[in-house]
Amino acid sequence: QISRSVRSIRKRQSEESGISLAYLLSTQFLELAQRRTGKEDPTFYELGDAFFLSGQGIGASGVCPRDGELGCSFVDTLP
Predict the structure, then answer these.
(1) What residues pair up with 63 in beta bridges, in sequence order?
(2) Which listed residue, 41, 44, 58, 63, has the most CB atoms within 10 A of its CB?
(3) What would the DSSP string read from start to end of the chain?
(4) pTM over 0.85
(5) How many whole angstroms from its chain centre is CA 30?
(6) For the segment 30-52, what is each residue's pLDDT rounded down to a tens digit?
(7) Hey, which residues does 70 pair with through a beta bridge?
């Protein structure tokens, strides 16, 4: 019963979450983008490839709180 409730809460939080503009403009995100792409000023398309299409895409090894399957969204990897 409790585990079902926890799954339901995590699913709802995932569905209602988003990434803030403050995070996208932060030093933390810039450093992540630079580290993943190897570029000082990566383009939007370079971020997509480095974040999600590489063999080690962000969220690829995480369990999705929405469906319980392997692979979660970027927002689900954030604290």
Answers:
(1) 70
(2) 58
(3) -HHHHHHHHHHHHHHH----HHHHTSHHHHHHHHHHH--SS--HHHHHIIIIISTT-TTTTSBPTTTS-B---GGGG--
(4) no
(5) 15
(6) 999 999 999 999 999 999 999 99
(7) 63
| Cβ(16)–Cβ(66) below 8 Å | no
Radius of gyration of the chain (CA): 14
Residue indicated by tokens 């503009």: 21
| Token pair of 72 as six digits | 């979660």
Segments of the chain scoring below 70 in pLDDT: none
Instruction: Using alpha carbons, list the distances in angstroms from residue 66 to 9, 26, 45.
Output: 10, 27, 26
